[in-house]
Design goal:
Blueprint lengths: L3 H10 L8 E2 L2 H7 L12 E4 L3 H13 L4 E4 L14 E4 L7 E3 L5 E4 L5 H8 L4 E2 L12 H6 L13 H4 E7 L5 E3 L3 H10 L1 H15 L2 H10 L12 H4 L3 H9 L8 E8 L1 E2 L3 E9 L2 H11 L6 E6 H7 L17 E9 L2 H14 L15 H12 L1 H7 L6 E8 L5 H14 L6 E5 L4 E8 L4 H21 L18 H5 L1 H14 L54 H17 L3 H17 L6 H5 L6 H12 L2 H12 L1 H22 L1 H14 L22
Parallel strand pairs: 2-4, 3-4
Antiparallel strand pairs: 1-2, 5-6, 6-10, 7-11, 8-9, 8-10, 12-14, 13-14, 13-16, 15-17, 16-17
């Protein structure tokens, strides 16, 4: 039952938006309200928007009713920035427009385009977008820009912030700003003079404060997505340029991104990589410092635990299992459009690190099988480690950065921290060239002691990163909810005040994705934790990353594989707890059609899943389990009496054909429809295309 304000919003919007795209059933709001983070909030309403007109109407009506909105695309976010308990506005289907400029230097993309799809469209021109997150096969442009995604090869030079050319946004009052159109910019300056003045005031205030100015400059010398992109206030003078760049990394808290124009970058034709094994993590980090000045495209660090998580892969080399506990790997890539130059780069890379001993000899490879395994091992680490966790636990990923000269000491300090709090399954990996490390571990949130352990870890992590190594608490995954309580710790009171003022300028009523990025609650990261109950061995390892969704034929019509698993888990939780029978009944009303009948069970989802979960296989099992006892007995009888069953069917079809010849199509069709109705669908309808009874096959 919707609260009065939400019911009124639904009623008003249903006049201009197809009611089928305004979702309020418990099953749909849970399914669409779930993202890849370890937080859960269930929306009151989910609206699947298709165009700007709908977005503006939603913003207008929600403002009148004082209702909060959260904008989202794919929901691959890891830090809780794409969930809400109010109204979720999903911009995926209908937001797929792509436009390449005549000189191929820029590409305009709508928020619902998957990053990998953008690259596929650019590939014939030898181009790609700059950001290359590991989730690029599922993440959409809206989220990539809103989180200032970077990735493995783009570093800080080709991330979303550096490659943005223009943006089109809708503000919290419905105003549109399109920075690519001079008339839109002029209109915006005319209609929003107070906003422009406040942005200019912030810019000037920072530039007149040497301490704050240099703090911002230094903090963004390494990857940093903690808080807002306040480097825009020191990098640019023009207020429109500042606004454009503030939107990057704003996590949907300032405006709705309608489209974005990115500068294209060259996608080199020839690529080669090598997985170089070092004796210690110190050696690997020291090699990274040397590689910074060499012709590398990427340098990815994998600690011993990371290697162990993939050593049982069919394509993994045998020696992975024999590596010493101190070992550490660097995945080094070089690229070029000239093959001869590619070889020369490999020679230069070898020469650059020859002073540092390696565990074994190494070679660069372009051979597809080995090349793809090397990158699969790195890109799939988060969900792979998640798939190895104990059932019922949550996979946690944190994303930090350090000044490169301190990377080795920081890595060892992190490992000591994991040991101190008994996170024995923690793995450390990341973009070593940028001093950017990710660490993944499993976490049990089922009891207070475990939550307290996590709280202690996070508190000490903040001290380690900020106070000891002057690093970034978030490097590329966005602040979200899990690091929002620590933004002021990293930045200090003056910079944090600037960030709060930015939020106030664009969202004075705090109704656009509230509690994300700026959150006064010091315990926010410990609340609204997502339950992951045991459901079925086929899907229990799912971490709800969403990698499967682009490959699902029913996604957008009913549910995706991730959403089917979410619903099955909720049913399992409700059945075992017996806490909310009404909610269970409401979800079960729609589950047969949404979860079961519309699943193609083709296994395509497993091809994209890093832990090979075949949701189709699970749905087949679900169907078998959901059959009532009477149906099971009928199925069992038919299965053991196939000869008699087929004979009966053959005879029935022949009899029907006789009646068809006597009565004609119209009368037989009418009679058939009548029998179908009075038997409540148990007698199937007859159609003219129904086959005739075949002759019995003589097998003698």
């Amino acid at each position: 039952m919707l609260a009065p304000a939400y019911q009124k919003l639904k009623d008003i919007l249903s006049v201009s938006i197809d009611p089928k795209r305004i979702l309020t059933s418990p099953l749909q709001t849970l399914a669409y309200g779930t993202d890849a983070s370890f937080y859960r909030l269930i929306p009151q309403i989910v609206i699947l928007v298709r165009n700007e007109t709908e977005v503006i109407e939603i913003i207008k009506q929600a403002k009148l009713l004082n209702i909060a909105l959260t904008f989202r695309a794919a929901g691959t976010s890891l830090s809780g920035q794409a969930i809400t308990d109010s109204v979720l506005v999903v911009a995926t289907h209908g937001w797929k427009q792509f436009e390449l400029s005549n000189n191929k230097e820029k590409v305009k993309l709508e928020p619902g385009i998957i990053g990998a799809k953008a690259n596929t469209l650019l590939a014939p021109h030898g181009l790609k977008i700059g950001p290359d997150p590991a989730s690029i096969g599922a993440a959409m442009i809206g989220g990539i820009v809103a989180n200032n995604a970077s990735g493995m090869c783009c570093g800080t030079a080709q991330n979303s912030y550096q490659t943005i050319a223009d943006i089109r946004i809708i503000l919290s009052d419905g105003t549109i700003l399109d920075t690519s159109k001079p008339e839109s910019v002029a209109s915006f300056k005319s209609s929003q003079p107070a906003l422009i003045e406040e942005i200019e005031a912030l810019r000037d205030e920072i530039k007149n404060d040497d301490t704050l100015y240099h703090l911002i400059k230094n903090k963004f010398k390494i990857k940093n997505t903690t808080g807002y992109s306040i480097n825009a206030l020191v990098d640019y003078q023009d207020p429109i340029e500042i606004i454009k760049h503030l939107m990057v990394g704003s996590e949907g808290t300032l405006a709705f991104i309608s489209n974005v124009t990115l500068k294209t970058v060259i996608d080199e034709k020839y690529k080669a990589c090598s997985l170089i094994i070092f004796n210690t993590i110190q050696d690997a980090c020291n090699a990274t410092i040397l590689l910074k000045s060499s012709p590398v495209a990427a340098v990815e660090l994998l600690d011993r635990e990371s290697i162990r998580s993939v050593e049982n892969d069919n394509d993994a080399p045998d020696f992975f299992k024999t590596l010493p506990e101190s070992a550490c790997a660097l995945l080094v890539e070089c690229r070029d459009n000239d093959f001869a130059f590619l070889i020369q780069k490999q020679v230069e890379i070898r020469a650059q690190i020859q002073s540092i001993p390696t565990f074994s000899d190494y070679e660069f490879t372009s051979e597809p099988k080995q090349y793809n395994f090397n990158w699969k091992a790195r890109k799939g680490l988060l969900p792979t480690v998640g798939g190895l966790r104990k059932t019922g636990t949550t996979v946690i990923i944190e994303d930090i950065a350090f000044p490169l000269p301190q990377l080795a000491d920081a890595s060892l300090a992190l490992k000591d921290l994991f040991k101190k709090y008994a996170y024995h399954d923690a793995v450390l990996f990341g973009h070593a060239l940028e001093g950017n490390l990710h660490f993944v571990f499993s976490q049990d949130f089922s009891n207070q002691a475990e939550i307290d352990r996590y709280e202690q870890l996070m508190s000490e992590l903040a001290e380690l990163v900020v106070d000891r190594f002057n690093g970034s608490l978030k490097a590329e995954h966005g602040t979200g909810r899990n690091m929002a309580p620590f933004v002021e710790k990293e930045w200090g009171a003056a910079a944090y005040t600037i960030m709060k003022r930015i939020k106030k300028i664009f969202d004075p009523n705090n109704k656009i994705n509230p509690d994300v990025l700026i959150n006064p609650d010091p315990k926010a990261h410990l609340k609204n934790l997502k339950p992951l109950p045991e459901c079925d061995s086929i899907v229990d390892k799912c971490m709800e990353c969403g990698f499967c969704e682009p490959h699902c034929v029913s996604e957008g019509m009913t549910l995706s594989p991730r959403q089917r698993i979410v619903i099955a888990r909720e049913i399992s939780r409700l059945e075992s707890s017996k806490a909310d029978p009404d909610r269970l009944a409401d979800i079960r009303k729609d589950v047969t059609y949404q979860l079961d009948e519309t699943c193609a069970t083709d296994g395509l989802c497993a091809l994209a899943c890093p832990v090979n979960i075949d949701t189709g296989k699970f749905v087949k099992k679900w169907r078998a389990n959901e059959l009532v006892d009477g149906n099971k007995k009928v199925a069992a009888y038919i299965g053991s009496h196939m000869a008699g069953t087929t004979a009966t069917v053959r005879t029935s079809l022949k009899i029907i054909q006789v009646f068809h010849a006597i009565l004609g199509t119209t009368i037989l069709k009418g009679l058939s429809n009548g029998f179908h109705y009075i038997t409540f669908g148990k007698v199937p309808k007859w159609i003219p295309e129904m086959p005739k009874g075949a002759s019995k096959i003589n097998t003698k």
